[in-house]
Amino acid sequence: MIEINSGIYVLEINLKNDKSIEIGALGFNDFKKGNYYYIGSAQRNLKSRVQRHLKTDKKFHWHIDYLIDKAKVTNYYTIKAEKKYECKLYNFLKQYDFLKVPIEGFGASDCKCSAHLLYSNSEIDLGDLIEDFKKHIIRESGVNN
Question: Which pairing describes strands 19-22 and 117-120: parallel, antiparallel, or unpaired?
Fold first, then answer.
């Protein structure tokens, strides 16, 4: 993987069993077992941000910290792109019927998106969807990936 310092990322997260999890100010929420996809950004120190999410011993700061504490990050993707593409990626992925918004407002306290977390009860090939999105970015804005 090419080292990039800023961009957007997607965490693939697997939850083995249904769980009620307290998510900071969002309170207790019921999560179904399955696969979750969290879209985030870091405009500096992208590698450090992703590595922080992979750690088990950390102070909880973001909504995603609470979910990761009860689930497992199984993979992640990074894309060299400006912060505005975080919301564009979320909206791009949300258009697929097999991805659902599990908790309104999750991870989206600093934008107008309904959430930045998506759910699927089955495994999907997110890599192909990410590649399609990268092509979409390049076509739309000339961003080089």
Answer: unpaired
Separation CA 123–CA 6 (nearest Å): 28
Q: Is the dihedral of CA 21, 23, 28, 33 positive or negative?
A: negative
The pLDDT averaged over each successive group of 10 residues in the chain (145 residues) is 78 97 92 97 90 88 93 94 92 95 92 94 92 80 55
What is the model's pTM?
0.90
Secondary structure in 3-state letters for the chain: CCCCCCEEEEEEEEECCCEEEECHHHCEEEECCEEEEEEEEECCCHHHHHHHHHCCCCCCCCHHHHHHHHCEEEEEEEECCCCHHHHHHHHHHHCCCCCECCCCCCCCCCCCCCCCEEEECCCCCHHHHHHHHHHHHHHHHCCCC
Listed in sequence order, the residues at least 6 apart from 92 whose beta carbon sits closer than 8 Å to its beta carbon are 129, 132, 133, 136
